[in-house]
């Protein structure tokens, strides 16, 4: 069974870059047709898809976050990473990583989520 685990700092200062890593076990991030996404949920709000990296290494971003978001991967560690630049308190959220077996399929595995607070 695939397991995903988010890691990274819980507190980031405004204007800095938020960096989170999702470590995958029980499956490979290069498995054909799989997509690996980052999603967040601000307090009191719904889930927001931020972007994804495909099994091929191609990346896809939410138009509203594209200018500040970068997703990359380290296949040797079976990890993928989110970087969100120029953060503000509005970026405070629980951040999740998930996997889906194709672009059109819903997520089949989720990490437990990690709280990130943007504050000085």
Protein model, in words:
With 120 residues, this protein is an all-beta fold. The protein is 0% helix and 49% strand. Strands 2, 4, 5, 6, 9, 10 and 11 form a seven-stranded mixed sheet that branches. It has a four-stranded antiparallel sheet with strand order 1-3-8-7, with no helix packed on it. The protein has strands at residues 3-7, 11-12, 18-25, 35-41, 48-54, 59-61, 69-74, 79-84, 93-100, 109-110, 114-118.
- Taking the alpha carbons of the first and last residues, their distance comes to 39 Å
Number of helices: 0
Q: Could you give a short account of the major beta sheet?
A: 7 strands, mixed
Structural class: mainly beta
Provide the fold topology.
Layout: E1 3-7, E2 11-12, E3 18-25, E4 35-41, E5 48-54, E6 59-61, E7 69-74, E8 79-84, E9 93-100, E10 109-110, E11 114-118
Task: List the keywords.
49% strand, seven-stranded mixed β-sheet, globular, 120 residues, mainly beta, four-stranded antiparallel β-sheet, 0% helix, single chain, 11 strands
